[in-house]
Amino acid sequence: MAVDKRRGLRGGSPVEWGPRVLLLLLLLGGCSGRIHRLALTGEKRADIQLNNFGFYTNGSLEVELSLLRLGTQEAQEKASQVGFSLSRIRSGSVHSYSTRNPHECPLQKNSSSFLVVFLINFKDLQVQVKKYGEQKELFISPGLLPEVPSKPGLPKPEPTDIPKVDSGESRVPPVNKDKEKPGPKASSQGASALQVPSGKDKEMVLGLNHFNDSYNFSFHVVIGSRAEEGQYSLNFHNCYNSIPGQERPFDLTVMIREKNPEGFLSAAEIPLFKLYLIMSVCFLAAGISWVSLLCRNTYSVFKIHWLMAALAFTKSVSLLFHSINYYFINSQGHPIEGLAVMHYITHLLKGALLFITIALIGSGWAFVKYVLSDKEKKIFGIVIPLQVLANVAYIVIESREEGASDYGLWKEILFLVDLICCGAILFPVVWSIRHLQDASGTDGKVAVNLAKLKLFRHYYIMVICYIYFTRILAILLRVAVPFQWQWLYQLLVESSTLAFFVLTGYKFQPAGDNPYLQLPQEDEEDVQMEQVMTDSGFREGLSKVNKTASGREQL
């Protein structure tokens, strides 16, 4: 399990969740961004997906395995059954090892696809690097890239030959020039030099260090040309645990630093800073326009109109903090802790307000009736806690590493809970449509009810389209487009959300000729009494009273 594993929310009433959610936000606010540090103790998984990243030309991947501790039996095995794999994957997809043959080890299987394998040989204290596929300008070297000193006066690191790419020139993979001269300590633990066997340009050997029953080594990879650009997946494999029932725990501590020429963001995330900033301004403008409309038509403004305004402003603030987070991740490799917490808080409020507002509008509250039915109250009792759970799952996913043992579980929880919420908010709209259908020819307001019925059907279609564009079509787009265009997924989601907000405001704007707002002419007490009159139990009691009165008249 992961060292930094947290147990989330357990039990308690919704009132008690507030302090726990706030505490969780403070604990998870300082996520590591694109400089990943993962520590696992007692881990038994055979395959661990560490990270996915989209690299441009001259992008770099640095991996430092600072601690790997296995059992005595595994360490004495000569066959390499433990190591890393670096593969280029198709956009929007991830490797799955759940369906493979448990007796097959991904490290030992030859492949014709783009794949690099790092086989750890504990007996000979070396790491064998094997390349498969066309990788003419994918440069692998031992050690980490030198860091630029953050304070003046610090000694500058020794320069390292980092391959640069010029169009039209062919390159030869770099050969180690004894830059890392092992001292007494390094010589006793295993050399860190890179050796290229003669006649084999696709196999090399890295040194493996051994100290106190643990092993460590480091390497970096540089994307040398446009042919090697793409979405890469880094995985760790321990094939000794491939057979069910024979898993043995091991400890792993690894640091991963990924970087593109423009910063620490993946290729698909580079435009997100500007995208979220622009969308934040758009939602702010929509909120200001909506408030000005409410101020001009105060005679027909309801509480839900102000709730819609609060939703627009909360969405704008959430996108603003999201944009700022991406700016600092791109420049520093990690977000600012306080700003990250503010983003999580506003994201939680935005999610809750969104589904509550959609459900209230769909139920016709304040537009068609003033009192919610028991069924509608149950829907709110389901949607609100589920939204809190969905937002907690989102925060955990954003704050934890992909290789954490509970990362996949929280991701499945987020998908399932979000799907349930999307289905639950449709029920109030359907019930309102049925209510208007039943009342269209019975209360003497046929034209008004038919107009409301038509618009509620339009709103139902709007909600369906919103769910389809943001949940289904966006995922299909993410799978179809190349890795550098993955940001179109977020563009579709945010633009669909903005269009849904604008259309909902247009349908429910406070105007005298709006059919939604023509029904509430009576006092609130009369409407509540009318709601009670529709109850089946009250009708039965009234029929019994009428029968008793008619019997007395006959006597």
Automatic annotation (TrEMBL):
Subcellular localization: Golgi apparatus membrane
First-listed, main subcellular location of the protein, grouped into a coarse class: Golgi
UniProt gene name: Gpr108
InterPro entries according to UniProt: CAND6-7_N, GOST_TM, GPR107/GPR108-like
Domain of life per record: Eukaryota
Keyword Signal annotated: yes
Domain GOST seven transmembrane: 271-515
Protein name: G protein-coupled receptor 108
Membrane topology annotation: Multi-pass membrane protein
GO cellular component: Golgi membrane
Region (Disordered): 148-198
Signal peptide start-end: 1-33
Pfam family, one: GOST_TM
Parts of the chain that traverse the membrane: 275-294, 306-328, 348-372, 379-397, 409-431, 459-481, 487-506
Keywords in alphabetical order: Membrane, Signal, Transmembrane, Transmembrane helix
Residue intervals of the CAND6/7 N-terminal domain: 38-131
Keyword Signal annotated: yes
Biased composition, class Basic and acidic residues, residue ranges: 158-169
